[in-house]
Amino acid sequence: MKRVAILISGGGSNMMALVRAMEGDFPARPALVLSNDETAGGLQKAAALGIATAVVDHRPYGKDRAAFEAAIQQQLQSAEIDIVCLAGFMRILTDGFTRQWEGRMLNIHPSLLPEFKGLHTHERAIAAGVPTHGCTVHLVTAALDDGPILGQARVDVAADDTPETLAQKVLVQEHRLYPAVLRRFAEGDMRPVFLA
């Protein structure tokens, strides 16, 4: 049974989708929810479910990202984590940290990578006039939003979609895709998951 840490910065909707999935015959369990923000709503949700939580506030570390990440690493090691799932964790991680978790850290991104890496994906998808948009789960590497793709889910872009309506459609698919990918990944199966 793999032990999973979920890293969040906000309300934790993807975290909750993962936690709800990790029951019964699922090959992993949530062992830690960690945030860089003590006010992140997802922390309370996790604690209410009896999941261990931790906060490593990035602000006291200033520009010393290595020290910030060392504090995160200490929490992960203490919890004997096997797999790290980034779920709305709004800090860019250094090469040194990602190398430590190479092949064991997943991220979900709100676009069909390699399209629209970075932020404001829904606005950019609408501006580009693409007919389909979606989300991607990938292995984390040192390059931003660039690791091997483990799964994608697509949505149609309607003529009247706004960034907000498109974001909501994509979020529904994120909550389906991330648990499906994590299940397969925790079983040692690297074949990508594609959802319509």
Tell me what you see in this structure.
It is a single chain. By secondary structure, the protein is of the alpha/beta class. The protein has one domain (2-189): Formyl transferase, N-terminal domain (Rossmann fold, 3-Layer(aba) Sandwich), CATH 3.40.50. It has 6 helices and 8 strands; from the N terminus they run E-H-E-H-E-H-E-H-E-H-E-E-H-E. An 8-stranded mixed β-sheet has the order 3-2-1-4-5-6-7-8, sandwiched between helices. Helix 1 (13-21) packs parallel to helix 6. The model has no long low-confidence stretch (mean pLDDT 97). GO terms for molecular function: phosphoribosylglycinamide formyltransferase activity.
CATH fold-level topology: Rossmann fold
Distance between the termini: 29 Å
Q: What is the molecular shape?
A: globular
| Structural class category | alpha/beta
- What is the tally of helical segments? 6
What is the second-level CATH architecture? 3-Layer(aba) Sandwich
Overall pLDDT score: 97
Specify the CATH homologous superfamily: Formyl transferase, N-terminal domain
Radius of gyration: 16 Å
Strand line-up across the major sheet: 3-2-1-4-5-6-7-8
CATH class: Alpha Beta
Low-confidence regions: none
Written as H for each helix and E for each strand, in order along the chain, the element string is EHEHEHEHEHEEHE
**What's the number of extended β-strand segments?**
8
Main beta-sheet strand count, sense and barrel state: 8 strands, mixed
- Percentage of residues in DSSP E strands: 15-25%
In which range does the helix fraction lie? 25-40%
EC number: 2.1.2.2
Pfam family, one: Formyl_trans_N
Organism: Ketogulonicigenium robustum
Keywords: Purine biosynthesis, Transferase
